[in-house]
Amino acid sequence: MSGTRTESNAEYGKKPFKRSRSHFADRITADGRDGWPVEAGRYRLVVSRACPWASRALVSRRLLGLEDAISLAVADPIQDDRSWRFTLDPDGRDPVLGIRFLSEAYDARETGYPGGVSVPAIVDVPSGRLVTNDFQRITLDFATEWTALHRPGAPDLCPEPLREEIDEVMEGIYRDINNGVYRAGFADGQSAYEDAYRALFRRLDEVSGRLADRRYLVGDTLTEADIRLFTTLVRFDAVYHGHFKCNRSKLTEDPVLWAYARDLYQTPGFGDTVDFDHIKRHYYQVHTGINPTGIVPLGPDLSGWLTAHHREELGGRPFGDGTPPGPVPRGEAVPPAGRP
User: Fold this and answer.
1) What does pTM read for this prediction?
2) CA 192 to chain centre
3) Using CA atoms, how far apart are residues 165 and 217, in angstroms rounded to an integer?
4) Using CB atoms within 10 A as the burial measure, which of 98, 127, 193, 313 is most buried?
5) CA–CA distance, 203 with 338 (Å, rounded to integer)
6) Which residues on neighbouring strands pair with residue 124, listed in sequence order?
7) pLDDT value for 22
8) What residues have CB less than 8 Å from 197, skipping those under 6 apart?
């Protein structure tokens, strides 16, 4: 998540919301043209399971089988003024990087960097320096630059013949849905809120229509576009409907989107990365400008995520000619409190 140095302050909601650009946009590529070559074991992916942008990277990493190639650090969903912290780990330090706060990796890259400390972030383990926080690019590069380290049977999440259509679909989803819920939630006035609200539900209605007779957004297999839509939909009823005032209707009230979201949640690599406990605690306890009491709602009932969706009747092959990912690696499973 991007914003100020940390998201724990109360300034959200007091000025127009504008998502920060990724300041560190180096790429890790097969040819190492930015100085960061793809290399198994060299890099560490830092995420918060609360963050939809980081969740994209979690899903992509699982689907492509990159768990052994790039290690994972999970930050506490509750930040303090020093940024994302590793208080979930013994002694409050990431066991690989040896740091207490993600900001330390940012500072190792650029001393005194004044911008936002955001996730997802990829850190170079040998130097302890941040490589990139470019959330838009990280997953695309996982799919296209890390191919030599993909698991056998990994799906092609960005098939070349469909890339133009995938990009077009993702552009609208990002602007009106992924970022739209934030523009509504952090609007500085009634007009800005209403504009974001209307754009959000126009796009959701459009996407619902698109998915009425097709299992996936582009083509007949899972693509990057599905990952990007899923990470917002899975948070919709738990936080965006109430916390961000996106309350025309719930996800569960749209039969198409609700079935689509359940289909993805029940697909290996999607739901097994989702931690509803982290999601709810982060949004309701960190965004004090919106929720000053810090009270975390008990609902909604999550059991519906595991019910039958019948989307397989539309056909489609989730992994194309490939196979589902294997079991969640030891130590990476979502705790019971975060699952339905």
Assistant:
1) 0.94
2) 25
3) 10
4) 193
5) 29
6) 43, 129
7) 61
8) 184, 245, 246, 248
Summarised one tens digit per residue, pLDDT across range 15-26 is 455 555 568 999
pLDDT tens digits, one per residue of 168-197: 999 999 999 999 999 999 999 999 999 999
Q: DSSP labels for 158-204? A: S-GGGHHHHHHHHHHHIIIIITHHHHHHT-SSHHHHHHHHHHHHHHH
Cβ partners under 8 Å of residue 112, min gap 6: none
Residue of 53, 76, 67 lying closest to 133 (CA atoms): 53
Alpha carbon distance 49, 54 (integer Å) = 7
The pLDDT value recorded for residue 19 is: 52
Cβ(58)–Cβ(269) below 8 Å: no
Catalytic amino acids? Answer: 51, 182
Distance CA 135, CA 158 (A): 16
Structure tokens at 264: 């993805």
Closest by CA to 214, choosing from 313, 113, 70, is 313
Pairwise CA distance, residues 258 & 244, whole Å: 19
Q: Are 240 and 185 in contact (CB under 8 A)?
A: yes
The one-letter amino acid code at 153 reads G
Say if CB 338 and CB 281 are below 8 A apart: no
Q: What are phi and psi of 37, to 5 degrees?
A: -80, 150
Q: Which helix (H) or strand (E) holds 74?
A: strand 71-74
Q: What is the pLDDT of residues 93-113, one digit of tens each?
A: 999 999 999 999 999 999 988
Interatomic CA distance for residues 253 and 181, integer angstroms: 17
Please report, rounded to a whole number, the percentage of residues in the chain having pLDDT higher than 70.
94
